[in-house]
Amino acid sequence: MSEKPATKGRRLLKLASMTAQVAGGYAKNRIKSVFQSDEASDADRTQMYEKSGEVIAKTLGELKGAVMKVGQMASVAADMLPKEVQDALTSLQREAPPMPFDVIADQIESEFSAAPETLYRTFERVPFASASIGQVHRAVTDDGREVVVKVQYPGVDNAVDSDLAHLKLALRASGMVRVPKKSLDAVFEELKARLHEELDYTNEADNVRFFFEHYKGNDGVIVPEVVGERSSGRVLTLTYEPGDHLDDARGYDQATRDLIACNLFDVVAEQAFDLQVLHADPNPANFAFRPDGSIVLYDFGCVKRLDPDIVDAYLFTVRASLEERYEDVEEGMIRLGARNLQGADVPPSYYKVWRDLLGAPLLGPFDFGEAQLQREAMKLVPGFMAKYMTSFQPPRELVFLDRVVVGHYGTLRRLGARADFRPKLDAYLRRAPDDAAALPPRA
After folding, report:
1. CB 85 within 8 A of CB 52
2. How many CB atoms lie within 10 A of CB 182?
3. 418-419 and 366-367 beta bridge pairing
4. Most buried of 144, 213, 367, 373 (most Cβ within 10 A)?
5. What does the alpha-carbon distance between residue 250 and residue 245 come to, in Å, rounded to a whole number?
6. Active-site positions?
7. First-residue to last-residue Cα distance in the chain
8. CB 240 within 8 A of CB 129
9. DSSP string covering 4-58, please?
């Protein structure tokens, strides 16, 4: 059982200590490298990254809240952090230790002026699931409905801005961040906006209602219903929709796993390109699966509404990449805000390498279970990619779409799915302009 939430003073102390440790390690490494050979300097730098990653992961895991959530996101941000740090942060993807029940009961009582045992016919004290900003308990309402009750940890909403400011300072002081300050600031502003939305459970309830109405009648996608009379700003009660965890779904036969992959592609593509409203947290704990190939969606706190101009530019860039029109890829990356024009010029050969590697799941039949895209990508980092590192920056508008794509690639890989997404993707790519001149002007 976890400790009670950290006080504001204790959070600040832990974050300040984390920043001092990673900054001190970076400064020490810089001084040592002056007197070392290149090989010794590289080895020491790797060790420094590993230690810094461990310090950051340990601190964020202890504090939970916004910083842990951002740490979970950063664990898949291959373009922002060294591999050693990403590896350390993957530990944050695991389910967080739960809070003591009295903390949860007090939070419910502060929202409804009544104890859980009064509000529900039954309320399970042991949590059904726990995460970075809250935990979920099974319960039964007075009218007999099976529900799940999501309860936010006390104080998390008041610590967001301070937590993010300290984390950004730590990453900058560590010397590990590989993007311009302006770009990092924009990404953190995007993260802050989404996190404030995620911490407002009335906003999440509206998101659930939106997706429930959209998928009503769709047998392949299940969304719970909101129990409004037992929901508030920090407590959200939803009907219980059962399904198998990803690890259990791996035991399904190949045909079912392949059907799930196709359904998951349809969910993401339709949300991104038709609805332009994206369920933006691909953590496997937010999805469940059924033997008929259907998918249950959970956790609608992080929802990203996409700019239609960005969607058009995204489709244009993907189509140009698959068709190997690399001048158009360059223009598309500029329109998306992914190119830092202050950096080195990028030749077509650079885009070709990444198109052949990262585009493989979209080019035709693909076996996700055998895929090693991340491992192959990391082989390119020390040489070819490093030369053009300053030429790119994480685009604010794509932070969450990229997170979804990378996250679901991991899901399909663990599922061992096989699929040919190209025909489905082509139906969307046909909407993309043939010429960059049809795109909105550059910002």
Report:
1. yes
2. 10
3. antiparallel
4. 373
5. 9
6. 281
7. 50
8. no
9. PPPPHHHHHHHHHHHHHHHHHHHHHHHHHHTTS-HHHHHHHHHHHHHHHHHHHHH
